[in-house]
Structures are given as C-alpha cells and as structure tokens.
Amino acid sequence: MEPHSFKPEQFLTWFESSGGWYDKQLVGLRPFHGMGYGAVALEIISEDVPLFHIPDSLILSPYTSELKSRLSESEWESLSHGWCQLILVLMWETIRGSESPWYGYIANLPSDFETPMLWNRIGRDDAETDYRAHLVPVIEAHPELFPPESPHTTMSAFHLQGSRILSRSFTVPLSRFTEIANDNDSVWSDDEEEQIAVMIPFADMLNAAFERDNAHLFADEELPSDRKEGFTMKSTKRISPSEQIYNTYDSPPNSELLRKYGHVDVLPLPADLVDLLDSSDVGEWPYGNAGDEVLIDGNHVVEAVAAVLGEKADDAWRKSVQKRVDWWLEEDQDDMFPLALSRELDTSIIAFIRLLSNDDEWLRAKRKGKLPTTEIDELVASIIAGVITDRLEKYDQTVQDDLAIVKQTWPTVRPADQHEATASTPTDQLRRCYAAVVRLGEKRILKAVARNISETPIVKKRKADEDTEQGKKRSR
Fold first, then answer.
1. How far does CA 366 lie from the centroid of its chain?
2. pTM, entire model
3. 8-245 has which CATH code?
C-alpha cells in the first residue's frame, strides 16, 4: 500500500458533489499531531449549530453498496460473521476505483495505523481465520469482481479495511437500510433493534478526547427542503476559532483510544483524582486520562472467589456458581466490571461477588428476583483484594518502569500541546510510550482501589446471619 496522503480539497469536492453539505464558513479540515486529520472551527461556532449533513445514500454500508446484488443469497449469508460483509464491500468499492460512488471517500481513508493489533500478533489470529474461512471462498468464486492479481483482497488489505472499520465506523439501526426491522412480526423491540456497522463520511473525521466533545451526530433532524434524510453533526457547546471539533464518544479510556485510533490522551489529572494515588504512583508525573478504567472479567471474579473459599469451592459449588452466573446474565447484568479512579467502587462487582460467595444472598435473589446487597464485608473485601492482586501480577513492568518510559517522551504535559509532543518522536519510542501510558493508568486504578478497599469500614455480620450460619452447622 502506498503511504496515505489525505487531500482535503478532493474529499470535500467529492462530499458536496455526492449530496453532502457542510458549512464552509464554520468548518475546515487540518492535521493534528498524533491524531491525523480532524475538523477545526474557522470562526466562533455557537451551541446547537449544524456543521455538516450526510444523507443516508452517502453512507457506505453492506446495504448501500451494490455488491450484495452481485452475490448469491447463500454467499451473502456466509459473510454475516462480524464485519465480513462491510470489509468485502470496502474491498470491492476500492477495486472499482473512480467507478465507485465512494471513490473520493475511499481514496482519502488512512492506510497507516498505529493500533496495537498491527504492532505484533495481538488479536490477529482470530481475524485472519475469519478472512480465510469467510472472505476467501467468495473472493475466489468471483474473479470478475475480485481480480486474482488485485492487491485489494490480500490479507494485508483485509487488516487495513478492518482497522478502518475499527477506528472510524458507526453503528446504526439496520432499519435505516432495510424493511426487516420494520416488519410487524419483528422480534426486535425499540431498545434492542439490530445494529450494523457503517462508514459515515465526514463524521468519521472527528477525533475523540476525554471530556472535550463539543459536537454530536444526530439522526433525522428537521432539515431544509434541499437536504435528504440522514445524519447531521451539530455543535453541543460554543467552539472557539482554531479549536478542534470533537465528536461525542462517551469519554473513552486510553485503552480504547489506543485500540481503535492508535493514540492516547495525556492531560493533567484533576487534583481530587491525584489525591487518590500514592506519591510513588504519581512519581512527579500527575498526568493521564481521567476516563481510564480497568475491566474485570466475570470469570476472573469467579476464580478469585474460589481462591478465597478454598476447600468450599468444590464441584458442587462450581455447579451452583454456574446457575448463579446464568441467573445474573438473565437479569440483564453485565459480566464485565469496570474499576475507575474514584472513591466509589462500582456496586455491580460487589453484588456479583456476594451472589457467588453467599448462599443466603443467592437464595434471596432467586426468591425475590432482586440483586444481592452491596455491603462490603470481610469476605467481599478479601475477594476484591484477590482480584486486584491477580490482575496486577499480569503486568511484566512495574509502575516505576512505566513512569520512566512516559517521562522520556512527555516530561511535562499541557492540554494544548499533548499531541504536538509526539511530532518528532520515533515511532518505536512512541509505541512504547503509548503502551506504558495505558498500563500506568490501569495500575494506578488497581492500586488506588486496593488501598480504598483496605481503608473501607468492614460491615460486620448481622446477628440474623450469624444465627442462620450456626443453625446450618448444628443441622450437619
């Protein structure tokens, strides 16, 4: 693949000629160090002002491309795994070149990515299995669509298109492109309507940063008569001239920013969050992403409970635990538990631990259909401590190791120049630094939560619980 060179004029000309609209007086495009091209305010933008509009016909999806009509129904269904349909659509539209309605868009998509999957083999094996099992048979069956000599259907092209989708796609209701979801007999409710990944030109130019969002993409806004149904990007607050325009992405943690977009946010941490950290964890570098989090897998919690229960965690307990986990999921509870840099611990992990470790809580939950209480007793505290210890042991580097790496790239950080600091940094050093920033943020959270738990007043067993326990012992 040739190195990517974004051409703003070519993209904007294509966008307008294809039915898109943008406010030329308010919005421009320019590069931002460490983030690629993004949108910028050309003059003061007030709140609730339309910035640009994308009609549905301009959205690149499995249902707006003609590829589906060129394949048999069974071939199309064989591609319904993950992003396979959209990846193959991107491959085909790329092969079509100037004949594709999205030529000006695809020609200006990035071709270089700094996401971890492309640094080594992290996550690549599963993706490559999808390529060989689902895409290759269709590609080889249609040389008239996918010439054998084309560089746009190779494994490298597959990774490129997957990275583009990962970093730039949006999810929208399937009903925007098909009548399936509008069928009166549909099993989908409004809250659980099937979603699909699509590419929305111009909207995907906007970058993400923690708590700096100042615009949002709205569907089906009231439009002037000359604009067709679609999506409108509008400002959500006042934006100053030369200020970058950020879309709303729910203040993503650095782990997500790095995984999807290949960069991290490094900003001064609020004083109340720094106060939660031990001085050795701050290390005279009070920076990071206040939105960072550590996701704890439910299976990890189960094993931590088993470790604390010891001999009580026998085969019978394992069978009971599976029933408890199934009940938890049937109650629409998540099996991933977020830990954040906060004085408050997410109550869902406490309730889950009590469900697994306390028979009375389990019986009460089944009988009343209510989640367990969220009190932290000695048993719960020891299990949370075990979860954190186990997670910390998975890191090869210490906090001090990571601090040394990040200080080398960012000795100090100001909100205005965090990305400019990366401009002259060698790629390998920058990758090491990004990974260290993510690890450091996670370790700080884990150590702060552990310290918070150790200082939390432990709820003693209530007399009723003690009597119940003694009654169980006497009945044995």
1. 33
2. 0.70
3. 3.90.1410.10
